[in-house]
Amino acid sequence: MVASIFFILFFSSFFFLTTDASSDGGQCGSVKCGDDGPDIGFPFRVIGQQPQHCGYPGFELSCKQNTTMIHFPTRKDLVVESISYKNRKISLLDPQSCVHEVFLNLNLSLTPFQYYYVVRNYTYLNCSARLPASFVEVKCLSGSRHHVYTVETSMEVPGSCRAVRTVAIPFAYSPYLADNSFGLGLSWNLPEHEDCEARGGCNWFLSKTGLETEQHLNLAEGFSIKSVIRNLYLKVLLCVLAVAALISMQMYHSKKMNKQQIENENLLQVP
Ligand SMILES: *[C@@H]1O[C@H](CO)[C@@H](O)[C@H](O)[C@H]1NC(C)=O
Ligand SMILES: *[C@@H]1O[C@H](CO)[C@@H](O)[C@H](O)[C@H]1NC(C)=O
Ligand SMILES: *[C@@H]1O[C@H](CO)[C@@H](O)[C@H](O)[C@H]1NC(C)=O
Ligand SMILES: *[C@@H]1O[C@H](CO)[C@@H](O)[C@H](O)[C@H]1NC(C)=O
Predict the structure, then answer these.
(1) Is the residue at 265 inside a domain?
(2) Per-residue pLDDT tens over the stretch 67-85
(3) 156 with 241, same domain?
(4) Does residue 193 form part of some domain?
(5) CA of 38: how far to CAs of 126, 187, 191, in Å?
(6) Which pathway does the UniProt entry assign to this protein (predicted)?
(7) 150 shares a domain with 21
């Protein structure tokens, strides 16, 4: 009987300890889509793997075949190569290897993001004839009968060309720059650590962003001290329970022995 109480206490303490451990990082700790993928945590979250409260609206990512993807309403999905929480930079790759197609069509105005790099306005031209060699056509947007260029907005549109759109982008086209990632860095802004405490993500977020101000430092200290005390308390409780159980087991055992001894003595006295 005492032994079973002991086991119940023992295992319920384990239960306390493990729930404590998980409430530290919460369900909102970081996840990865693949072994080499970036750590995903607040303000980002992975749809289907982390509850809605773990991320901020517009920061939803998805995992497809171990690859981290981000979806934009005006574009096919892009691959998330890395996330720097400290610099608030997310680096993307275009699986179709045509960054200027992304630049041309990506409208960030309804997203929480802006380009990480300083942008300038460029005009995309679609020309039926090639321009002089000093202009380099965007290969992945051009075909045999049309030639696409990025030019300064001040340039007069040649007769053979049509201005497709003027967009603020980080870089004009250059054949020397990688066509799948160059310039595809975005940054984000949030109100100061918006609500991450309520989302259970502060600890993780703060450790990733580095402690920028004293206020955050205090916040982080408060957190860790609280959890240390809670851990300590639970460990002490566990020890006390274990010792109490052992003592009561011992007492029960020796009581039984005494009883048996008395019975034995009685038996001996009977004849
Ligand atoms: C994803 O990663 C797991 C574990 O590394 C591996 O077993 C699986 O084959 C990978 N799937 C794809 C589609 O690459
Ligand atoms: C981006 O979308 C916003 C809102 O839908 C729109 O007002 C704006 O003109 C768009 N910008 C470009 C460059 O298409
Ligand atoms: C680009 O052009 C638009 C429209 O003329 C203007 O509102 C915007 O400020 C320009 N952006 C940059 C980065 O020059
Ligand atoms: C350029 O024009 C051609 C032919 O008119 C068209 O097929 C192509 O989609 C256009 N490209 C862009 C980027 O507007």
Answers:
(1) no
(2) 999 999 877 899 999 999 9
(3) no
(4) yes
(5) 37, 16, 23
(6) Protein modification; protein ubiquitination
(7) no
Q: 85 with 152, same domain?
A: no
Please, which pLDDT band fits residue 254 given cuts at 50, 70 and 90? confident
The tally of domains found in the chain comes to 3
Q: Provide the β-strand partners of residue 91.
A: 82, 185
Q: Please report the DSSP string for 216-240 in residue order.
A: HHHHHHHHHHHHHHHHHHHHHHHHH
Query: Quick check: is 264 in a domain?
Result: no
pLDDT in tens, 124-136: 999 999 999 999 9
Distance 147 CA to ligand 3 centre (A): 25
Q: Which tens digit of pLDDT belongs to each residue from 179-188?
A: 778 889 999 9
| Residue 119 Cβ contacting ligand 3 at under 6 Å | yes
Among 21-30, 38-47, 207-216, name the one with the lowest average pLDDT. Answer: 207-216
Asked, for residue 270, whether it belongs to a domain, the answer is no
Predicted local distance difference test score (pLDDT) of residue 237: 57
Instruction: Tell me how many degrees the CA angle 248-254-260 measures, rounded to the nearest 5.
Output: 140
Same domain, 152 and 80: no
Structure tokens at 242: 């274990």
Report field, pTM of the whole predicted structure over 0.85: no
Mapped to the 3 state alphabet, what secondary structure does 163-185 carry?
EEEEEEECCCCCCCCCCCCCCCE
Give nearest CA residue, ligand 3 atom 6.
121
What is the span of the domain harbouring residue 8?
1-28+226-252
Same domain for 54 and 110, yes or no, is: yes
The residue whose CA is least distant from atom 3 of ligand 2 is 109
123 and 165 assigned to the same domain: yes
Q: Whose CA is nearest to atom 13 of ligand 1?
A: 65
Ligand 1: distance of its center to the CA of 93 in Å?
A: 20
